Structures are given as structure tokens and as C-alpha cells.
């Protein structure tokens, strides 16, 4: 199964910024929505932000005002601009695409974001 490919993670100090990218293979079509999720050690995967095709972005309360999700359809790429990073933002970040047809969900392998205090 084709997978999404995340990049842009790394180590940053608290208050810093990172931009994550997610490349979408051409085979992934009829996308209803795309999003970013994250999973910290010992915790369940949680929603960070989603953006429906042609719709308005939605954010977790914990990242509102600090993170911005965007899509560049010409480049088949999803972005997550993360500003004012906090140690509690440390997690593996995953890209997701919800499609109209099977398999209905695509995921990437994830990219590690570590924020030091």
C-alpha cells in the first residue's frame, strides 16, 4: 500500500519553530480530508489538525494559535507550521489522508519532533 511520506521533524528548543511536510503519492486520489496526528511515549495517538478538501481547518485546543495546517494541491503536499513549540509537543507526528474509496485511510511512518526545555 502506498504511504504518505513525512519530513521536517527534529530537535528544537522551547519557543522555536519547525515545519513538517507530507508528500502525497499520485496514486492517492479522491481525498476528503488530510490531517496531522501525534503520539507521545505512553500515550494514545491524538489529533493535531485537519483540513477538509475545500473546507476550513480544525485544530486541537492545545495547538490553536501556534500551529497552522495547509495544503499545496499543486505540489501534492501537506504542511504543518509549528511555532512557539513546547516540551509537551514532543511526539512522533503522523500525516493522514482520508479518501472516498478503499482503503479510506493512508498514513505515513511518522517524523519525530523533540522540544527541549
How many strand elements?
11
End-to-end C-alpha gap = 38 Å
Number of helices: 0
Q: Please trace the helix and strand order, writing H or E for each element.
A: EEEEEEEEEEE
SS content category: mainly beta
What are the low-pLDDT stretches, counting only 5+ consecutive residues below 50?
A: none
How much helix, percentage-wise, in residues?
A: under 10%
Global Rg: 14 Å
Taken as a percent bin, the fraction of beta residues is over 45%
Q: Report mean pLDDT, rounded to a whole number.
A: 95
- Estimate the global geometry from the Cα principal axes: globular
Largest sheet: 7 strands, mixed
Structure description:
The structure is a single chain. The radius of gyration is 14 Å and the shape is globular. It has strands at 5-7, 10-13, 18-23, 31-39, 46-52, 58-59, 67-72, 77-82, 91-99, 105-107, 111-116. By secondary structure, the protein is mostly beta strands.
Summarize the structure in short:
This protein is mainly β and 117 residues long. 0% of the residues lie in helices and 52% in strands.
Write the layout of secondary structure elements.
Layout: E1 5-7, E2 10-13, E3 18-23, E4 31-39, E5 46-52, E6 58-59, E7 67-72, E8 77-82, E9 91-99, E10 105-107, E11 111-116
Parallel strand pairs: 2-11
Antiparallel strand pairs: 1-3, 3-8, 4-5, 4-9, 5-6, 7-8, 9-10, 9-11
List keywords for this structure.
117 residues, mainly beta, seven-stranded mixed sheet, four-stranded antiparallel sheet, 11 strands
Amino acid at each position: 500500500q502506498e504511504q504518505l511520506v513525512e519530513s521536517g521533524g527534529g530537535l528544537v528548543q522551547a519557543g522555536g519553530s519547525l515545519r513538517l511536510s507530507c508528500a502525497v503519492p499520485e496514486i492517492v486520489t479522491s481525498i476528503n480530508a488530510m490531517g496531522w496526528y501525534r503520539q507521545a511515549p505512553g500515550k494514545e495517538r491524538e489529533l493535531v489538525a485537519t483540513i477538509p478538501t475545500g473546507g476550513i481547518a480544525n485544530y486541537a485546543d492545545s495547538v490553536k494559535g501556534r500551529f497552522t495546517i495547509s495544503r499545496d494541491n499543486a505540489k501534492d503536499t501537506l504542511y504543518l507550521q509549528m511555532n512557539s513549540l513546547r516540551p509537551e509537543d514532543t511526539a512522533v507526528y503522523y500525516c493522514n489522508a482520508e479518501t472516498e474509496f478503499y482503503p479510506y485511510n493512508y498514513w505515513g511512518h511518522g517524523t519525530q519532533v523533540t522540544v527541549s526545555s
